[in-house]
């Protein structure tokens, strides 16, 4: 299996664009040529050892994970804070976010959401597809696999949770996830995050009125005043408030405009420890640049808060600083204060917060009712028309056709024989050494290979 | 404190860019302030900010422009930025009728959240897409007249009329303000300390804490 992949890669032509090791198109002039090449043998060794440790901790396909976490939560936390090895990231993210369980509990639900349901947000989603990670090879090709899976995940979510629907910014969450897992896995991870499988639900960031954005921003402002009083005072004088610079930190969990390696490291911790890390990283950034920031007047200050210097965004300096800032107790207190103050608001918000379980159950019953309706030829044709409107790719339509025929025939074919539109053409168990990089390299290569040159 | 030449100005005008998502607000701003255009720009999350200093009617004016996210859901954050703005550029996409239909909703937003004397300019963007143009210039023109807005068509891509659009609205603001300061017998402010957001119109420091004060 592994051998075959390597051969494939060698046969493929060299891509036309230069990308960094995460698949982002490189800006033209850059002196140092990527981390991969400059990595020493020593570092490679260390990385290999780290991956072995992680594999042992996870077990085959994640079988030992829960056990390990229960026994040694602190070891897990420490290791995650050092960064999850890139080739295991997709799998580990699913394990720590609880999305793996959701996926297993809800077989077939995702397909149903993608194929049978219509969403009021479809046009909004399409408009933003090419505006999400526009500099990443996976998402660059018009109607390419990247853009299609991004569309599918966002559409499925907007159907799954019609109160949230689609909100700009969610595309960056989905896009980031799709670089590490297939559509269905990415979808369930979104569900786990927004509905709060493990940590506080994130949906309030996107619901009408953006209640959680408002809450987090005001809490962040408070924390700045407490942790960095001098800067807090300066902000007040210059009339700077967090909505001018930090909305996207919370709404996209740093995935909108921060350097990708930093965003990934933040996501590792975010999925395991929750939203606290967003506050901590935000405070660490301000702390790191504190002495410059306190001198700047309004306009320059805003500029600086949106363009942190490169050294500030080095994960190995910024994150240890972030970990050392303690916010959890204060945040808890502030949450309670906030709830009291905005009691009414919070109450109406609570209506949305149906428990995750009942939500999923609802979804399942919905799917079953759909399944029980026999599809006559008319709806069949309708559905095909709709699909072909959005997806020009034949394999995708083929997949849908297959699935329909199976449903009609009443047989259940094992999913492995159906061609499923996984964005990168691999399944999650298919973890290879240095997989994270190779994965999309091969995806990109296969796209280029089709182009006659 | 001595200021460098680029920080000297007679007036500081705060202007907001509003309109549906994808109509080209961020690109109009980047064209105007940095002479840049990006075909695949990310959607704006929350608000963005940029400035440019230029000559308007013989005065040095610093335009402080707030670019807002277009999606309706984001108004919870962005509408706070209308307050204290002296001008609003209301943008629609000449190839997308719905973005024009929504103009009246944006006008209502301004009426609800902005100062009543705000200067509004209607902008039909993307005129370079001639073969896709779906909205007649005349219709938009007569709509603008009816609503008392100034109107212009632009292309951020080809840099057509972008400069003119900003010049026009800033000049209009200037005229109103100089008239006002004459009639109220106050000397027009000559220089404003950098960092102060506002000049005339709204003396309340409403630019403070936009995010949490509204709701
Ligand atoms: N052809 C053409 N395309 C344009 C023009 N202006 C903007 N665009 C394109 O329209 C898309 C959206 O532009 P943005 O400036 O990001 O739109 P926006 O109004 O800021 O959108 P939001 O931030 O989501 O509210 C981008 O793909 C731009 O390249 C124009 O004058 N001509
Ligand atoms: Mg924008």
From TrEMBL, chain A:
User: Gene3D superfamilies of this UniProt entry?
Assistant: putative rabgap domain of human tbc1 domain family member 14 like domains, Ypt/Rab-GAP domain of gyp1p, domain 1, Ypt/Rab-GAP domain of gyp1p, domain 3
This entry's Gene Ontology molecular function terms read: GTPase activator activity; small GTPase binding
Q: Does the keyword Magnesium apply?
A: no
Sorted UniProt keywords: GTPase activation
Q: Is Amino-acid biosynthesis among this UniProt entry's keywords?
A: no
The Rab-GAP TBC domain, residue ranges: 83-274
Pfam families from the UniProt entry: AdoMetDC_leader, RabGAP-TBC
| Name of protein | Plant adhesion molecule 1
Q: Which organism is it from?
A: Heracleum sosnowskyi
Automatic annotation (TrEMBL), chain B:
Q: Which GO MF terms are attached to this record?
A: GTP binding; GTPase activity
Membrane topology type, per the record? Lipid-anchor
What keywords are annotated for this sequence in UniProt? Answer: GTP-binding, Lipoprotein, Membrane, Nucleotide-binding, Prenylation
Any Pfam family: Ras
Q: Which InterPro entries does the entry mention? A: P-loop_NTPase (IPR027417), Rab_GTPases_membrane_traffic (IPR050209), Small_GTP-bd (IPR005225), Small_GTPase (IPR001806)
Q: Name one GO cellular component term.
A: plasma membrane
The source's domain of life comes to Eukaryota
Which spans are transmembrane here? none
Location of this chain's protein in the cell: Cell membrane
Protein family according to the UniProt entry: Belongs to the small GTPase superfamily. Rab family.
Name the chain's protein: RAB GTPase
Give the species this sequence originates from.
Heracleum sosnowskyi
């Amino acid at each position: 299996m592994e051998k075959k992949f390597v051969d494939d890669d060698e046969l493929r032509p060299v891509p036309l664009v230069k990308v960094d090791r995460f698949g982002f198109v490189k800006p033209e002039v850059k002196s140092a040529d990527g981390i991969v090449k400059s990595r020493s043998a020593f570092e490679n060794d260390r990385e290999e050892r780290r991956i072995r440790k992680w594999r042992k901790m996870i077990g085959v396909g994640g079988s030992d994970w829960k056990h390990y976490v229960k026994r040694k939560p602190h070891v897990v936390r420490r290791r995650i804070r050092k960064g999850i090895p890139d080739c295991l990231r997709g799998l580990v993210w699913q394990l720590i976010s609880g999305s793996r369980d959701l996926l297993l509990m809800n077989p077939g639900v995702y397909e149903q959401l993608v194929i049978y349901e219509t969403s009021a947000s479809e046009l909004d989603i399409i408009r933003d597809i090419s505006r999400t990670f526009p500099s990443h090879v996976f998402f660059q090709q018009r109607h390419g696999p990247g853009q299609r899976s991004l569309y599918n995940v966002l559409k499925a979510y907007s159907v799954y949770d019609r109160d949230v629907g689609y909100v700009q910014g969610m595309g960056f969450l989905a896009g980031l996830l799709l670089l590490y897992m297939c559509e269905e896995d990415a979808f369930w991870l979104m569900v786990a995050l927004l509905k709060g499988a493990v940590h506080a639900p994130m949906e309030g960031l996107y619901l009408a009125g953006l209640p959680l954005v408002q809450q987090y921003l005001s809490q962040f402002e408070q924390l700045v005043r407490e942790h960095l009083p001098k800067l807090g005072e300066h902000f007040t004088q210059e009339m700077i408030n967090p909505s001018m610079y930090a909305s996207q930190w919370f709404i996209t969990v740093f995935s909108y405009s921060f350097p990708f390696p930093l965003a990934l490291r933040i996501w590792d911790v975010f999925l395991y420890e929750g939203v606290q890390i967003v506050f901590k990283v935000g405070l660490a950034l301000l702390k790191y640049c504190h002495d410059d920031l306190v001198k700047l007047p309004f306009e320059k200050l805003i500029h600086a808060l949106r363009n942190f210097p490169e050294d500030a965004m080095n994960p190995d300096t910024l994150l240890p600083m972030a970990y050392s800032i303690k916010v959890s107790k204060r945040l808890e207190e502030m949450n309670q204060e906030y709830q009291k103050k905005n009691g009414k608001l919070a109450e109406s918000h609570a209506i949305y917060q149906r428990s995750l379980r009942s939500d999923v159950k609802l979804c399942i019953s919905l799917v079953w009712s759909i399944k029980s309706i026999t599809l006559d030829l008319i709806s069949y044709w309708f559905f095909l028309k709709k699909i072909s409107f959005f997806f020009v790719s034949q394999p995708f339509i083929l997949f849908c056709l297959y699935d329909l025929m199976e449903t009609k025939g009443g047989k259940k074919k094992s999913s492995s024989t159906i061609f499923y539109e996984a964005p990168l053409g691999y399944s999650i168990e298919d973890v290879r050494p240095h997989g994270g990089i190779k994965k999309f390299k091969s995806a990109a290569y296969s796209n280029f290979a089709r182009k006659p040159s | 404190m001595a200021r460098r030449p680029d920080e000297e100005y007679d007036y500081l005008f705060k202007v907001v860019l509003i309109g549906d998502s994808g109509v080209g607000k961020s690109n109009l701003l980047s064209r105007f302030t940095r002479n840049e255009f990006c075909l695949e720009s990310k959607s704006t999350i929350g608000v963005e900010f940029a400035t440019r200093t230029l000559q308007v009617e013989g005065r040095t004016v610093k335009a402080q422009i707030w670019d807002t996210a277009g999606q309706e859901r984001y108004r919870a954050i962005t509408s706070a930025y209308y307050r204290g703005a002296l001008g609003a550029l209301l943008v629609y996409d000449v190839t997308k009728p719905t973005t024009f239909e929504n103009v009246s909703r944006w006008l209502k937003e301004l009426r609800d959240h902005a100062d009543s004397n705000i200067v509004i300019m209607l902008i039909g963007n993307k005129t370079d897409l001639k073969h896709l143009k779906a909205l007649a210039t005349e219709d938009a023109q007569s709509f603008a007249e009816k609503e008392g807005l100034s109107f212009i068509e632009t292309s951020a891509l080809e840099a057509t009329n972008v400069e003119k659009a900003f010049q026009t609205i800033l000049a209009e603001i200037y005229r109103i303000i100089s008239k006002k300061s004459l009639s109220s017998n106050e000397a027009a402010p000559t220089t404003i300390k950098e960092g102060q957001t506002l000049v005339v119109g709204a003396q309340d420091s409403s630019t403070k804490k936009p995010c949490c004060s509204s709701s």
